């Protein structure tokens, strides 16, 4: 069995994969992550996951490559990481009291095989007051997170319900990832 490369620099993806007891190494591919014109959120994460995997496979041709990309979509618009405190407040005001989608593209690739999928989780974010936004920003948690929140952290108290994969919202849908790894015989 070829060894596994997680083509991601995300500490959250590494932590999730470690929970499964799977041995892997990490490599962070440097690819252009710009959104293409008229590209949907689903197509965007699928494309980036496969591009990251293909990039890593060039360097590690005898390995199994696992790559993923996650984004948040509200009304068909991708919401990225906050550029500033003001931007985080704008994101939270948009998400407040509404449901949004968290989409992850996952790709498992070898020199001869490629399997990929997109996982969609619906997340309801409670209506946030100015004081709640101020308090949450002061924790530092939202700074490098898509949607300016981390469901596995303090933000869990602002999320009354989700429909779909919790681990998808964290950054790597484990159930689907295991299915893809089994498809390439990287797992039994």
TrEMBL record:
Its cofactor is a divalent metal cation. Belongs to the Maf family. YhdE subfamily. SUPFAM superfamilies: ITPase-like. It catalyses: dTTP + H2O = dTMP + diphosphate + H(+); UTP + H2O = UMP + diphosphate + H(+). Nucleoside triphosphate pyrophosphatase that hydrolyzes dTTP and UTP. May have a dual role in cell division arrest and in preventing the incorporation of modified nucleotides into cellular nucleic acids. InterPro entries: ITPase-like_fam, Maf-like. Its EC number is 3.6.1.9. Keywords: Cytoplasm, Hydrolase, Nucleotide metabolism. Its main location: cytoplasm. It is an enzyme of class 3 (hydrolase). It comes from the Bacteria. It is found in: Cytoplasm. This is dTTP/UTP pyrophosphatase. It comes from Acinetobacter pollinis.
């Amino acid at each position: 069995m070829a060894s596994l490369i997680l083509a991601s620099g995300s500490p959250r993806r590494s932590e999730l994969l470690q929970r499964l007891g799977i041995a892997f190494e990490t490599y962070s591919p440097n690819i252009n992550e710009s959104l293409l014109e008229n590209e949907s959120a689903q197509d965007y994460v699928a494309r980036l996951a496969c591009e990251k995997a293909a990039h890593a496979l060039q360097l590690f041709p005898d390995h199994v490559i696992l790559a993923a990309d996650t984004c948040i979509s509200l009304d068909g618009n991708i919401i990225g990481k906050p550029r500033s405190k003001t931007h985080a407040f704008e994101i939270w005001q948009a998400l407040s009291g509404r449901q949004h989608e968290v989409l992850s593209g996952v790709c498992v690739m070898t020199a001869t095989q490629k399997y990929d999928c997109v996982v969609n989780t619906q997340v309801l974010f409670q209506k946030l007051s100015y004081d709640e936004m101020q308090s949450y920003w002061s924790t530092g948690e939202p700074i490098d997170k898509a949607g300016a929140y981390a469901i596995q952290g303090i933000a869990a108290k602002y999320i009354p319900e989700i429909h779909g994969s919790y681990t998808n919202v964290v950054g790597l849908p484990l159930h689907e990832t295991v299915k893809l790894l089994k498809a390439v015989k990287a797992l039994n």
